[in-house]
Amino acid sequence: MTAGPRRLEICIVEDEADLREEIVEALLEAGFGVRGFPASRELYAALLAAPCDIVILDVGLPGEDGFSIAERLHSLGPMGIIMLTARAQTEDRVRALLGGADVYMVKPVDLRELLAVIGSLARRLSASESLPANALETMASPWALSADGWTLFDPDGASLPLTAQERAFLQRLWQQAGEAVSREELAVAMGGDPYEYDFHRLDTLVSRLRRKAADLGLTLPLRAVRGMGYLFIPVSERA
C-alpha cells in the first residue's frame, strides 16, 4: 500500500498566548501540522521528539531570543525559518537574515499573507530537496492581500500591485472571502452611489484586473455570480 503524502510540519515560538493560538488555528485549518511553544526550551524538547520543516519565531522571547534561536536552528541543517516580530528596524532585519532566517515579517501581519509566505518558502525548500516533493501536495494554496491592501500575492508569492479602485474592490471581497458580494455593495466600497453608479465601470475594472494579472501569468480566482456580483476564493485545496 502506497503511503499518502506527508504534510508540512510547522513549529511556532511566540510568547503571547492569544497570538500563538490564533496562528496555530489558522495553520491547522490550512492543512499543516502545527505545534506552538512559548520559548526556546519547549521548542528544542519538541524537536528532539519530532523534527519540523519550518519554524516561525518571534524575536522578543523570554530567555533565548529569536535571533539566537534562528542561528542555532540554521546550524542544525535544512529548515525554513520565518521571523515574525514587531521590530521593524533595518538592523534587525539584516541581523535575522544573516543569522539564518529565510523571511522577516513585521507584526501585525495578515494571516493570509503569512500563509502565502509559508507556501512560497515550502516550495523553495522542496526545490532544494530540503523537503520531500509530496509534502506540498495536500497543503492549501492561498492567495493573500497585503496588510495595507495595495498588493495581491498568488500562492507562489508573485505580487500584483493594485490601483486605488482595485484595492477597494478586493478589500471588500476579502471581507467575505469565498462568498458573493453584490454589485451594489462593491459600488459603495469604491465610493459610488449604488443608485447612480454605472455598473459597466465595475465590469471594466474586473476585466482590466484580470488582464493585468494574466500579463504576469496569473489567473485570478475571481468569479462573477449571475444576478448578484462577484466573489474571490483565496484558498483552494489540492486533491
Could you give the topology of this structure?
Elements: E1 9-13, H1 17-29, E2 33-37, H2 40-49, E3 54-57, H3 66-76, E4 80-85, H4 90-98, E5 103-106, H5 111-127, E6 140-142, E7 144-145, E8 151-153, E9 159-161, H6 164-175, E10 181-182, H7 183-189, H8 199-215, E11 222-225, E12 229-232, E13 235-237
Parallel strand pairs: 1-2, 1-3, 3-4, 4-5
Antiparallel strand pairs: 6-13, 7-8, 8-9, 10-12, 11-12
Describe this structure in words.
Strand 4, helix 4 and strand 5 form a beta-alpha-beta unit. The chain is 40% helix and 20% strand. The protein has 239 residues and is of the alpha/beta class. It folds into 2 domains: 9-139, Rossmann fold, CATH 3.40.50; 151-237, Winged helix-like DNA-binding domain superfamily/Winged helix DNA-binding domain (Arc Repressor Mutant, subunit A). The chain has 8 helices and 13 strands. The strands form 4 sheets. It has a 5-stranded parallel beta sheet with strand order 2-1-3-4-5, sandwiched between helices. It has a 3-stranded antiparallel beta sheet with strand order 7-8-9. The chain has helices at 17-29, 40-49, 66-76, 90-98, 111-127, 164-175, 183-189, 199-215, and strands at 9-13, 33-37, 54-57, 80-85, 103-106, 140-142, 144-145, 151-153, 159-161, 181-182, 222-225, 229-232, 235-237.
